[in-house]
Amino acid sequence: MSEYTSVTFDKDLLVQIAGGDETAFSILFKQVVPSLQPAVFKIVQSEEGMQEVIQEAFIRVWLHRDQLPELEKPLHWLFRVTANESYTWLRKQAIRRKHTDGYAQQLPDDGLLAVAPEILSLKETSKLVHQAVEQLPPQRKLIYQMSRNEGLKPAEIAEKLNLSPSYVRNTLVVALQSIREYLEAAGKVLPLMLWLLKK
């Protein structure tokens, strides 16, 4: 993954991301993804796999964002995270193929159509996200809605609700994890790239 050499960004951006700034995270995402895509595709050889790997890599980056300002070579780290996610994806695919092949032998010739992955539209995704948000505990739901719907930063939410900024940031991370787990349980995973590019 040598494509990172042409990518540069301000270190202040990493500090903002470490502080829970979603807009700064979106900027980082948009700056780095064009270089990540061809590198990931070389490994996974799949457009869908490439998007899934990048999604998982950036979830990992967000969950460990507090480490970003301390990294001497953040782009090296980011590409290493993405490479690791690429190989994890390949291992999962190998296991999935093994199980699918065994199941396919028990199906009629057209039976594979019944288990073909369904493409999730943005409308369906929004509906599932809404359902997931409605199931969050009251305070977690409020904090998430203030962040996503009102565009408030963690420090602003903390001030309004008389909470610490770190508590708000952690609550947002937990809320996003809960939403993602809800979608996974429904057999769908929120396309993180769409979520970021909407910002």
Automatic annotation (TrEMBL):
It comes from Filimonas lacunae. Belongs to the sigma-70 factor family. ECF subfamily. InterPro entries: RNA_pol_sigma-70-like, RNA_pol_sigma-70_dom, RNA_pol_sigma70_r2, RNA_pol_sigma70_r4_t2, RNA_pol_sigma_r2, RNA_pol_sigma_r3/r4-like, WH-like_DNA-bd_sf. It comes from the Bacteria. NCBIfam families: sigma70-ECF. The keyword Transcription regulation applies. PANTHER family: RNA POLYMERASE ECF-TYPE SIGMA FACTO, RNA POLYMERASE SIGMA-70 FACTOR ECF SUBFAMILY. GO terms for molecular function: DNA binding; sigma factor activity. The keyword Calcium does not apply. Residues 128-176 form the RNA polymerase sigma factor 70 region 4 type domain. This is RNA polymerase sigma-70 factor, ECF subfamily. GO terms for biological process: DNA-templated transcription initiation. Residues 28-94 form the RNA polymerase sigma-70 region domain. Keywords: Sigma factor, Transcription, Transcription regulation.
